[in-house]
Amino acid sequence: MLCPYCAFDESNVLESRDANEGKTTRRRRECLKCKKRFTTYEEVGNIELKVIKKDGRVVDYDRAKLERCFEKACWKLNSEERSKIIDEMEMKLLNWESVEIPSKEIAKLVMEKLKEIDPVAYIRFATIYLDVRKIEDFEKIISNFKKN
Q1: 117-148 pLDDT, tens per residue?
Q2: At how many degrees (to 10) do helices 119-129 and 135-147 cross?
Q3: Are 19 and 41 in contact, with CB atoms under 8 Å apart?
Q4: Residue 39: which pLDDT band, with cuts at 50, 70 and 90?
Q5: Residue 115, SS3?
Q6: Which residues lie closer than 8 Å to 73 by C-beta, 6 or more apart?
Q7: Residues forming beta bridges with residue 58, ordered by sequence position
Q8: 15/30 Cα distance (integer angstroms)
Q9: Which one of 70, 93, 123, 124 has the lowest number of neighbouring Cβ atoms within 10 Å?
Q10: Residues 87-105: pLDDT tens digits?
Q11: Phi, psi at residue 81, to the nearest 5°?
């Protein structure tokens, strides 16, 4: 960490504490050269997740897509509840063995979550994701849901 006064690159940490509800660490430092004190804030940088689409393309992960998905499927939930669900899902994605995640795996996570919280939303999402075009396919989704 460079001293903001003399640009020396060594300092002692005098005190550390959590800030911003534990998402940031506040550190009080003292420069080893000029002895002036300064404060730094550390937070985790964004982890670059990539999504592997059905056609093989690799695109950047976009939280807004999940937000729109849950907004359409779970319109009864308020935005805070939806945000909490998406946060949980993102934690699973961040713990994935790779930073490249197939879109079908993300869809499976969405379906599992919808199955827990709203059966109608689950069926609505499944019909779109599985590209249901026949009544028989729709009936299969419902019968599979009832089995589990």
Answers
A1: 888 888 888 888 878 888 888 888 888 777 76
A2: 140
A3: yes
A4: very high
A5: helix
A6: 110, 114, 118, 121, 122, 124, 125
A7: 52
A8: 10
A9: 124
A10: 888 889 888 888 999 999 9
A11: -65, -45
3-state secondary structure of 36: coil
For 35, residues 6+ apart whose C-beta sits below 8 A from its C-beta are: none
Q: Output phi, psi for 107, to 5 deg.
A: -60, -40
Residues 3, 20: contact at Cβ < 8 Å? no
**Token pair for residue 77?**
């939930």
Residues 142, 126 contacting (CB under 8 angstroms): no
- Token pair belonging to 140: 């299969």
Angstrom distance (rounded) from CA 83 to CA 63: 10
Angle between helices 63-73 and 119-129 (to 10 degrees): 120
Rounded-to-10 torsion of CA 53, 56, 59, 62: 10
Q: Which two tokens stand for residue 109?
A: 């996570």
Domain layout of the chain by residue ranges: 11-43, 50-147
Ramachandran region, residue 104 (left: φ > 0; alpha: ψ -120 to 50; beta: rest):
alpha
Which amino acid belongs to residue 24? T
